[in-house]
Amino acid sequence: MVNDFQPCDVIFVRSRRDPSLKDRVIGKLVKWATGSEYSHVAYFIRPGVTFEVNAFRRAGYGSINDYAEFDVKQLRFALKVRERILQQIQRTKGSPYGWGEVVALLLRKKLGIPIYYDNPVTNECAEVLVKAVRAETGVWIVEQTTGDVSPQDLWESPWLK
């Protein structure tokens, strides 16, 4: 239930409400490439408000009502630490989308090409959490240390419950 969410809870999106054609295509591509039921992640700020890095706009605020189907996990850190991680995530507001990271992710996951990419200026939806946790705690919550991280990589992380 949305009222039970806490700051920085990770929202794993299966589908959006009223997706554009671009959202549908990218969502299906991400699911296909990663073998995941999730195409996107966002972060809970407060009731009704999320933060996301979306492929077709700059990083910023959205609404939980934008998502039709989703699951939620919580970082295995104390609330105060999660709040500081969320502040780190929100500092990416206005950053452009990390298409290079997405291409590297697709090449690696679908074609088995061992390529990794990380542009420090751009972000993708799962990457902002990995970098924020690392900056705040020193912990890598996924196995790789680059920005090309999928929603499925986060879903499988032992650092989320």
Please tell me the overall pLDDT. 91
| Global Rg | 14 Å
CATH architecture, please? Answer: Alpha-Beta Complex
CATH topology: the name is: endopeptidase fold (from Nostoc punctiforme)
Structural class: alpha+beta
* CATH class group: Alpha Beta
Task: Report the helical percentage.
Answer: 25-40%
- Amino-to-carboxy terminus distance: 16 Å
Beta-strand share of residues:
15-25%
In total, how many beta strands?
5
Q: Assign an overall shape.
A: globular
Let me know the largest β-sheet: 5 strands, antiparallel
Domain module tally: 1
Low-confidence stretches: none
- Strands of the largest sheet, in order across it? 4-3-2-1-5
Question: What is the multimeric organization of the chains shown?
Answer: single chain
The arrangement of helices and strands along the chain is EHEEEEHHHH
The number of helical runs is 5
Mind telling me the CATH superfamily name? endopeptidase domain like (from Nostoc punctiforme)
